[in-house]
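hiii so um. not sure if this is the right channel but i have a protein structure encoded as tokens and i wanna go backwards to a sequence. like what aa goes where. can anyone help
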């Protein structure tokens, strides 16, 4: 195209066929996206989602079901929510584009502690404690709170472009949902999988409830450590009557008895609950007599010369150093079998029933090792799983397990010496911190002379994942689902066996998830499903007061379910027992269970009330998609719930994503100020930028996001938009009459681009089928930047601008551009949905939404491996020419490539043959070019491209006033003396179309 400096008799600029489109260069996404959303919402009574489902169902499309893992209805969405819901939207939209009918019903988890805390805070702010608020009023406020955040989050998710049946969203607090959850619970009770047991469970004093494994996370914590002496009271006379030492000492010198078994623990507060000591049958122990203590210490050691201490031989040196013992001797080997010790606090409260005067037996336990401590484990069966098991295995009764700590984390009043002291603080600024119990116990041990040493240790300690407060093991009566009892309705298999098989039958993305959840299920304990809270779905059943057996009466259960269906879970708590029991059962004979279900049981049952019983859905779902932490959460609870009631998993496939970190790879935290809010991104840049970021990351690993990363994403978006804009402009006015229909008429370059479309079609569809979204977006970005912008567009821009519209080359180019546009807009639609919708409706304003389209079939005839090989060679030669011309420009010997006429020497015959039928000058973007077989030693060359050398000569002839090419033929057409022959023909056509 001529510039203003060119003096011609005519200004030919109006005859140049420049791209033309109203599609703006700048997206203006924060303003444009809401307009697109409004248009989608108007398409049906269920918006775009309803319109697409209707179209697919009318076409008889196969069904695909994505079941939504429910976010918690508490607060605005964060970047993790945004990633999760965007990935789900990629699945929904890509399945629609692949021709499926997609069922996706968004849902919310509503019950549980976080909302309870918020409502407790509200009431406290008004001067009312929770126990002063009627339970019905409290639950109603919880319901209102959850309902508010469901609506708020729904708006935020829809702003991201997430498609789904928002009009029929599910919530675990809906009356119908609660009724179905209770019905699912009843199934476990009816099949004998439910039982009540009194055992130590993870207990959160701050939250005042039991917690399941899935609700526990581990953090580093500094705990006090104590080495405690348990004086030996009795021993096996046959084993230890006389020592083997020359002096013939009695090993334990009874009386007086100064031999003690030494235990080590990080929970001094559990000493009042001690009832035994466990030892390892394979561990070697010895009796060590103290002969000398360390001197010049800041404090006197608690050990004394003459003390006889029984410890594991392997750990003796560690104990000696902790006790500040300078020297001791190993008097005898010791077999702890049959030993009986006294409680270290017995001297203060000697009553064997109400105090500490009871015997402390030594029990053999396989859980005991000599890796750390003393080789002996202080055993409090009410505060530890191993302690509990070894106690029962050794023949002791459940009744002998003491209750020492109350639900609020304080010692019961009846605990000698320590009644009322807090183990964990639950109120005020110190809530969640360990209370005075540890210190008080240690002080009494010192006073008793039975504290050998103490210290501090940093170790991994269980915390509630909600409150972040430490938890304790506490013996309480709870309801459990058995993992290892054969179940007739499961074909005689156990729940564990059924779940393990279901895992093997499930597809995992990535496959490593199979091993992760499999290992958890294989080793997990029985499922603790009861909680002692107010806001949740009840374990709605009655228990016989005499037998402890749940009442499983079909008529009673029906009345329970009908009442909850009508009035929600509140009906269970507010209506009299007679309403449920009817006239066949005496209410005085039954205990009404008022515990609520584990919220994981709630969400694990969502498949039952969201997918089942609908004509347009099915169970099992094709896919569950959540973060990798849900292997121990929703994936697992859903698996166990469905396996226990249906004998199979509720899903065919499971997809997991990692967590989102800041750009330095650190966990996001408001306190650190490193959070990235999706609302801010949407407001400043548009949801499309967030969607493109989600598409480009490897979601299977932890991802990073921040200003720098988003700037890179924005740059990638800008390039995609520019490609789209070019396509729209270059295709202005294209119609079917212009289309080239015979494949043989396409030039080599067009055949190559069609081949690339054939390749990408298979890649894109396979990547979408496997949920590998980055394997869609990255190859397409490379295609846009490489094959299109840098090659196809750049080479053919002269043809587009300057060829006559009737010219075959231009028609072929525009035909292929149409195929490119047709495919790019649907391939990219699931990921950059707003921009592709804008592009499609800009070109075809009356064709309906882009999302209604299905990916077109790509003709097999477009495959052309020969053209792919040819253009790899052509581009290799072109790279040498481009590098040579860059030197000429740098040295100011030419101003642009159109001033050049390179002579290219090509030694390799196959490289030279690649240019058969190809205009080398057009490919090199020069006015002229000459290809010569052979080599040229003095010419420009690149080391990495062998056998190609370039002589960068100047083009000869005149400069065309329209195309700027320098050619000898310029001026040979007397009608247009300033033009080349090609341009003269194009202008003649233009003049004929504009003749007056």
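sure thing!! here u go:
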């Amino acid at each position: 195209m001529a510039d203003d400096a060119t003096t011609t008799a005519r200004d030919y600029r109006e005859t140049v066929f420049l791209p033309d489109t109203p599609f703006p260069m700048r997206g203006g996404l924060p303003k444009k996206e809401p307009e697109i959303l409004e248009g989608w919402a108007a398409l049906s009574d269920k918006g775009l989602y309803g319109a697409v489902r209707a179209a697919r169902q009318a076409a008889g499309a196969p069904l695909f079901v994505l079941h939504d893992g429910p976010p918690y209805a508490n607060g605005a969405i964060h970047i993790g929510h945004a990633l999760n819901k965007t990935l789900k939207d990629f699945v929904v939209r890509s399945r629609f584009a692949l021709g499926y009918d997609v069922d996706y019903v968004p849902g919310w988890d509503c019950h549980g502690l976080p909302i309870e805390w918020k409502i407790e805070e509200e009431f406290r702010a008004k001067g009312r404690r929770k126990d002063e608020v009627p339970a019905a009023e409290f639950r109603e406020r919880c319901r209102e709170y959850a309902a508010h955040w469901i609506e708020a989050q729904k708006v935020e998710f829809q702003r991201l472009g997430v498609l789904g049946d928002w009009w029929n969203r599910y919530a675990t607090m809906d009356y119908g949902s609660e009724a179905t959850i209770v019905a699912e619970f009843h199934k476990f009770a009816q099949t004998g999988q439910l039982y009540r047991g009194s055992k130590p469970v993870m207990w959160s004093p701050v939250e005042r409830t039991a917690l399941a494994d899935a609700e526990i996370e581990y953090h580093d914590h500094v705990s006090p450590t104590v080495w405690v002496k348990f004086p030996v009271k009795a021993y096996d006379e046959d084993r230890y009557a006389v020592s083997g030492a020359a002096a013939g000492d009695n090993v334990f010198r009874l009386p007086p008895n100064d031999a003690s078994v030494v235990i080590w623990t990080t929970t001094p507060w559990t000493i009042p609950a001690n009832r035994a000591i466990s030892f390892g049958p394979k561990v070697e122990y010895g009796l060590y007599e103290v002969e000398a203590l360390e001197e010049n210490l800041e404090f006197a050691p608690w050990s004394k010369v003459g003390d006889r201490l029984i410890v594991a031989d392997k750990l003796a040196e560690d104990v000696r150093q902790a006790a500040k013992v300078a020297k001791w001797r190993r008097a005898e080997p010791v077999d702890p079998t049959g030993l009986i010790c006294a409680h270290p606090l017995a001297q203060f409260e000697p009553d064997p029933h109400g105090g500490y005067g009871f015997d402390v037996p030594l029990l053999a336990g396989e859980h005991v090792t000599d890796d750390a401590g003393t080789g002996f484990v202080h055993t409090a069966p009410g505060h530890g799983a191993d302690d509990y098991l070894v106690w029962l295995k050794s023949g002791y009764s459940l009744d002998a397990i003491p209750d020492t700590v109350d639900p609020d984390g304080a010692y019961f009043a009846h605990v000698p010496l320590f009644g009322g002291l807090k183990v964990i603080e639950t109120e005020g600024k110190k809530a969640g911190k360990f209370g005075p119990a540890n210190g008080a116990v240690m002080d009494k041990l010192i006073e008793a002379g039975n504290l050998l040493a103490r210290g501090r240790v940093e170790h991994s300690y269980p915390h509630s994942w909600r409150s972040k407060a430490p938890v304790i093991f506490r013996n309480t009566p709870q309801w459990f689902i058995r993992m290892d009892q054969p179940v007739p309705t499961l074909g005689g298999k156990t729940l564990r066996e059924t779940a393990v098989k279901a895992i093997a039958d499930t597809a995992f993305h990535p496959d490593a998830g199979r091993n992760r959840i499999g290992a958890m299920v294989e080793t997990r304990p029985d499922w603790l499903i009861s909680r002692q809270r107010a806001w949740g779905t009840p374990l709605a059943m009655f228990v016989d007061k005499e037998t402890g057996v749940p009442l499983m009466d079909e008529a009673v259960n029906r009345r329970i379910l009908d009442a909850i269906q009508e009035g929600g879970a509140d009906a269970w708590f507010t209506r009299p027992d007679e309403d449920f029991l009817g006239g066949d059962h005496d209410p005085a004979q039954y205990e009404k269970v008022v515990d609520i279900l584990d919220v994981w049981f709630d969400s694990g049952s969502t498949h039952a009330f969201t997918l089942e019983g609908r004509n347009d859905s099915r169970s099992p779902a094709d896919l569950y998609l959540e973060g990798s932490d849900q292997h121990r959460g929703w994936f697992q609870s859903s698996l166990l719930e469905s396996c226990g009631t249906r004998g199979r998993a509720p899903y065919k496939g499971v997809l997991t994503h990692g967590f989102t970190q800041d750009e330095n790879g650190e966990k996001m935290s408001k306190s650190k100020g490193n959070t990235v809010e999706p609302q801010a991104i949407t407001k400043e840049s548009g949801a499309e930028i967030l969607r493109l970021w989600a598409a480009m990351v490897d979601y299977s690993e932890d991802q990073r996001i921040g200003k720098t990363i988003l700037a890179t994403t924005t740059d990638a978006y800008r390039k995609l938009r520019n490609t789209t804009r070019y396509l729209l402009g270059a295709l202005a006015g294209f119609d079917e009459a212009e289309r080239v229909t015979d494949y043989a008429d396409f030039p080599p370059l067009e055949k190559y681009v069609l081949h690339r479309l054939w390749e990408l079609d298979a890649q894109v569809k396979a990547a979408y089928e496997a949920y590998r979204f980055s394997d869609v977006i990255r190859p397409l970005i490379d295609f846009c930047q490489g094959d299109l912008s840098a090659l196809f567009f750049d080479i053919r821009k002269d043809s587009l601008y300057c060829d006559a519209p009737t010219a075959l080359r231009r028609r072929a180019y525009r035909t292929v551009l149409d195929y490119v546009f047709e495919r790019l807009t649907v391939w990219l639609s699931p990921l950059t949905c707003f921009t592709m919708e804008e592009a499609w409706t800009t070109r075809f304003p009356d064709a309906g939404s882009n999302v209604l389209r299905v990916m077109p079939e790509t003709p097999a005839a477009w495959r052309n491996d020969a053209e792919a090989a040819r253009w790899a060679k052509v581009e290799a030669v072109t790279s040498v020419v481009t590098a040579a011309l860059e030197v000429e420009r740098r040295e100011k010997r030419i101003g642009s490539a159109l001033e050049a006429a390179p002579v290219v020497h090509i030694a390799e015959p196959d490289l030279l043959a690649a240019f058969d039928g190809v205009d080398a000058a057009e490919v090199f973007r020069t006015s002229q070019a000459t290809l010569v077989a052979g080599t040229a030693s003095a010419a420009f060359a690149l080391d990495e491209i062998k056998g190609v050398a370039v002589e960068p000569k100047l083009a000869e002839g005149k400069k065309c006033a329209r195309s700027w090419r320098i050619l000898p033929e310029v001026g040979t057409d007397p009608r247009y003396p300033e033009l080349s022959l090609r341009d003269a023909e194009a202008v003649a056509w233009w003049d004929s179309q504009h003749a007056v």
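oh and Residues 54 and 818 are 28 Å apart (CA to CA).
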